[in-house]
DNA sequence: CTGAAAGCGCTAACAA
DNA sequence: TTGTTAGCGCTTTCAG
């Protein structure tokens, strides 16, 4: 931001020129001091520093950016911050970026395919050094749109094999582990909330696949009646899907919400219907939202390594930014570690 | 972001110079076309536009910013996005900013006083045009730190009468209205969850004041036993405070959570203890979080005008940015409209 | 209607 | 160790 001083009357901010004049040295010397260049005589440095303090000089970041070609800003594009998962992801990215001396500009796409595609070519985020992009509306057919002329890191499970670095969680393995966890606790009829019919890629499909793998490995049958589809993954959807399943009179001894929000919604319906959790039924979520620690009972869930996703996304992006111009490496896929967070909802 | 083209081999992005050369005109003419300057001959415009397309020219925002003194970026500083209230606030600010052609950079302070103060003088956000600041750790004693040399808008209830524009909700009136709503429905013993002992300013104090005013106006006694203090305003705090009140055997016919998160936590405990909501007890929240529409029962709450807060904050900030250098107006306080959102938890 | 040129504030090569 | 100077890419007087 532009600097001015004195209350009421605004003065033009001090420049390197001003400081140089004040200190009786050249502009280069001031620049050296500001940038902690080593070869500056101590007395000179002190003199310049004094001038800097008196004039309350602060470097003009815009000018610096123009000169250096870097802004120190990265962009993060998510569907919407109102969804806890993305809010917590953004939180993680901001923290990780801060550790690397970067600052984060956030765009919301609403999960709309067209807006996502438009964003990629938008001139709006052109003063950031790169983009961390979490698409929701685009799918693998749109992957070519990801071939953008600036550093980008892709997040999530909508698109695989695109032309950019990709950081994502081990959805299949994690869902399989979650299901195995339930099976190991003696559960045999595990309902799933949040399936997307006919989807082959995407979080829902991958997690459902993990679920099926676990059943198969344990020799348990896959029962279509235990699959509760939902359109979106909001709490309300979990609520409705669970209610529908109860109404159908399906028997089950555990519920696996494909994300925490769904699981919390389902849990609510179960308790309303007088099911005891975990006595009558186990409930498992996915995402490890903050909230799951505080629900009643606290929700057992899969920690997809969100902190690691954020940290790695920033790191990978930074690597690409640093590699500008050099013969670039082929896009890599980075998978994060997951862990089951065992809480009260599973015994 | 820097533009390059061709897969694999990165080329320097096209500049105005390049386009001018390609089109056989001067750089000024290209600039005119890019900026939709009116007095350009149609044929010239077409010629230039062709060159722009061929070279995939995109203006360098950094250079433009240096020249114009504006970046089109504003910063938003909040405690943390993991708290739904701030995530939804950020959502609103991003949307409002977008309507004004601005983009938003988000900083997290953790609600820590020292970090908040440090942020205000940090050089990190110097490439934004202004700041929307929602402090949580600072208090009125720190108000002088808000006298910064760049446009700023203050949000929230921590500091009043500071040297900057302030956008805030009508806490006292809104809490009073909420309480009156409960009273009008026949409630006489209204428990409060989330009070902060000894606080005189801040959301908790103001909302408690509104509660007391409503009681007084209705001729109802203020009973200290009905006040449930909490340190923070997380779901868990609501849960604990409600539990404590039940353990103390206090009688009540309504619960007013000073924010939604508290109310949802309290609601959970009540249901666990077999209270029927709203049959046995009414529950009222404050904030109108998205989630309150989907809880069971859906939570009646106060909509503090968050969308309006976001919109107004951006608008006021933009006014200040525009008024740079001119004799500035004294700081103003802007109060938003509130509304009771009546849902299932109150009958 | 279009061109020439100055300069936003800074960094960095090159000189001294 | 410090000074001089040429741009980074753009907007914007001022001429023509």
TrEMBL record, chains A, B:
GO terms for molecular function: DNA binding. It holds the Pfam family Peripla_BP_1. InterPro entries: HTH_LacI, Lambda_DNA-bd_dom_sf, Peripla_BP/Lac1_sug-bd_dom, Peripla_BP_I. The keyword Nucleus does not apply. Gene3D superfamilies: 3.40.50.2300, lambda repressor-like DNA-binding domains (1.10.260.40). Residues 14-68 form the HTH lacI-type domain. PANTHER family: HTH-TYPE TRANSCRIPTIONAL REGULATOR GALS, LACI-RELATED TRANSCRIPTIONAL REPRESSOR. This is DNA-binding LacI/PurR family transcriptional regulator. It comes from Arthrobacter stackebrandtii.
